[in-house]
């Protein structure tokens, strides 16, 4: 079954026709920033991650094997072949993507079709990074899996920390997780080396590449730019639990608990952007400064940013 969100009609087609609704928070007036987000009523499913390689190729994954694909015109439900909760996704190009999740699940998307890779672990996999010729999945109990030469292998890891995010950078791949752990992963040599954030031993939940380094985010407003082994920290008001981070045209976007969204131009001077509800937001992808995708718990899918995208038929 495929569920299609048609732009002009704002309807969802499936076994039952449900209107796509724009959710509003009680204190969000019709002219407020919170009311200008595009919001898709996608049901109660928890969405856990979003990734893409362009404005016309975006993948959202969630619980019970849920996968949605945006092709620039419609948001389509794709068959995953699994009921495992999917925790992470990475889109390499128009024809290749990987999703990972519970029970060591790894799915590969080619030409619009998802197939399961042979599992190498029963551990929960929380995140994945994918290139054209290689990939790396990370998860709980220090599990790190590398794809090279078409073969997945388990990389020996002296640590058993839980990893929650992974990103590439000029220095290679970095996986981050509990207790402020930062591990550099070399897929080619199948090796892991430890790094750390000074004076930060709290959970890191999100990571993304930018310029010469990478951004990491976590609990209590943890926000770091990391490059060449050095970390620069910025503070966010309210000390929110930050789950994910994305960069577009020099603007950094972070999302977190209770509908938290903030914009940091150049990674500085955060501005909190109101959202239509207070659900936990756990994933963000920004094809450009004018096109932002945010996903989260209980069916949260927001598209913005407000004031840039209007409700003029742009709801996916």
| Fraction of residues in helix | under 10%
Strand content: over 45%
Task: Enumerate the strands of the largest sheet in spatial order, edge to edge or round the barrel.
Answer: 3-2-1-8-7-6-5
Mean pLDDT: 86
Uncertain segments are 1-31, 309-316
Give a quick precis of the structure.
With 316 residues, the chain is an all-beta fold. It has one domain (4-23, 31-304): YVTN repeat-like/Quinoprotein amine dehydrogenase (Methylamine Dehydrogenase, Chain H, 7 Propeller). The chain has no helices and 31 strands.
Structure description:
- The protein has no helices and 31 strands.
- The strands form 7 sheets. Strands 3-2-1-8-7-6-5 form a 7-stranded antiparallel sheet, with no helix packed on it. Strands 4-31-30-29 form a 4-stranded antiparallel sheet, with no helix packed on it.
- It has a single domain (4-23, 31-304), classed as Methylamine Dehydrogenase, Chain H (7 Propeller).
- It is globular.
- It starts with a strand and ends in a 12-residue tail after the last strand.
- The protein has strands at residues 4-6, 11-13, 18-19, 38-39, 47-54, 57-62, 67-70, 74-77, 86-93, 96-101, 106-110, 113-116, 125-130, 134-139, 144-148, 151-154, 163-169, 172-177, 181-186, 191-196, 204-210, 213-218, 223-227, 230-234, 242-248, 251-256, 260-265, 271-272, 281-288, 291-296, 301-304.
- The chain has 316 residues and is mainly beta.
């Amino acid at each position: 079954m495929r569920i299609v969100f048609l732009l002009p009609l704002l309807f969802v087609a499936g076994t039952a026709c449900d209107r796509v609704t724009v959710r509003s928070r009680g204190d969000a007036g019709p002219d407020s920033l919170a009311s200008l987000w595009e919001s898709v009523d996608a049901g109660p499913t928890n969405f856990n991650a979003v990734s893409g390689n362009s404005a016309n190729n975006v993948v959202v994954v969630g619980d019970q094997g849920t996968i949605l694909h945006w092709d620039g015109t419609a948001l389509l439900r794709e068959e995953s072949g699994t009921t495992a909760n999917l925790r992470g996704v990475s889109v390499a190009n128009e024809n290749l993507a990987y999703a990972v999740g519970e029970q060591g699940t790894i799915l590969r998307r080619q030409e619009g079709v998802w197939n399961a890779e042979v599992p190498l672990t029963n551990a929960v996999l929380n995140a994945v990074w994918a290139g054209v010729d290689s990939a790396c999945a990370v998860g709980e109990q220090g599990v790190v899996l590398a794809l090279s030469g078409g073969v997945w292998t388990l990389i020996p890891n002296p640590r058993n920390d839980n990893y929650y995010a992974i990103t590439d950078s000029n220095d290679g791949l970095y996986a981050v997780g509990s207790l402020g752990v930062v591990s550099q992963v070399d897929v080619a040599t199948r090796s892991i080396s430890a790094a750390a954030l000074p004076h930060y031993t709290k959970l890191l939940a999100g990571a993304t590449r930018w310029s010469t380094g990478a951004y990491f985010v976590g609990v209590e407003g943890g926000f770091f730019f990391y490059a060449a082994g050095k970390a620069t920290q910025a503070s966010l008001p309210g000390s929110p639990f930050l789950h994910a981070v994305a960069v577009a045209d020099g603007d950094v976007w972070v999302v977190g608990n209770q509908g938290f969204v903030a914009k940091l131009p150049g990674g500085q001077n955060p501005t909190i952007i109101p959202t239509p509800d207070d659900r936990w937001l756990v994933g963000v992808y920004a094809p450009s400064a004018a096109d932002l995708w945010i996903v989260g718990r209980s069916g949260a899918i927001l598209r913005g940013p407000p004031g840039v995208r209007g409700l003029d038929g742009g709801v996916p």
